[in-house]
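Reagents: none. Just compute today. N5-carboxyaminoimidazole ribonucleotide synthase.
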Amino acid sequence: MNRVLVLGGGQLGLMMAEAGARLGLVVDRYDPERALLLPGTSDLPVPIDLQTCLERYPVITVEREAFPASGLSAELASSDRCVARGALKVIPDRFDQKSMLDKLGIPTAEWMNLDRAGDLDTAIQRFGGVVVKARSGGYDGRGTWILNAGDDTSVVPVAELAGQAIIERKVPFRRELSIVGARNLQGDTLFYPLTRNWHVDGILRLSLAPARACQALQKPAEAMLKGIMEELDYAGVMAVEFFEEDGQLVVNEIAPRVHNSGHWTHEGADWSQFDLHVHALAGVPLHAVNVHGPTAMVNLIGTPFDQAWLQHPGVVHWYGKSVRPGRKLGHANLVADTLEELREGLRAWADVLPEGFEAVLDSELGL
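Predicted 3D structure written out:
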């Protein structure tokens, strides 16, 4: 098996195609918005039909969770060739996602439906601080409202969200962590070490890996991700984001795809998450994950490319997308021998990191 089709025309699929090319694997991408195929890493689109896709690609994967309700991408996403079809039925809807976690006995923040106006007041009385999340469509802080007890609830469009949102207990977490792992078509699994993440306004700005002081949490995190992948009969790379609360892991979100918090693996490990994703689908054995040293991933958000970055410590990955506020346009990876050296290297990136990033590093250093 040497051909894989990715549903989605973004940077994640492009990085999968790049990873496949290094081992002679053909990874093509289908752009649902333009209804065109992007062969390999090419930007020259060509038309393709369902029958040709089924004849050419024995395995279909995804780089995102949502697709148009009709058209070729919808047919391909629901076909038995798509190794993410089980996940696509569950993960995009937060009600279904949370219900699955409850069924599996995996810890997640207590929650309830937002069905009517009074439910928000009920949740605040029950939980104190709450997070209102649209059942589908929200990401990078969109479709999310955070309220503490006593806050003005009118900022939440309850009438619009009724029946289309959930309400979670606001978790007083110590830090945000994630795990990225792969499962192949035979059911074998492999996991990267837990990663420390720092979000600002709902957008990931900095990841540090391996996360410090996580030896006792690694195996529980792996068990949770493995259980989710098995429940969904999923193949490829998947990520789970956690809150660490009182020394325990609480699942926040699940991403049935390669994930932003795994971008550090480009330079920080022998095999990146994109390598493992493609290998898991193409029958290449999953390789042991050798981490090179403390690694940081800096997201480059809403800013034009700056030639000066090429003189900074680390390696820049640029996606070639148009610039707009809040958009993920690239990332930079820094690898060091120690966390202290990593901290020094990140100071060169202070102009693209929000205020407070050094406090995150200090907490990982135990300062």
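DSSP finds twelve helices and 17 strands in the chain.
Action item: order primers for follow-up constructs.
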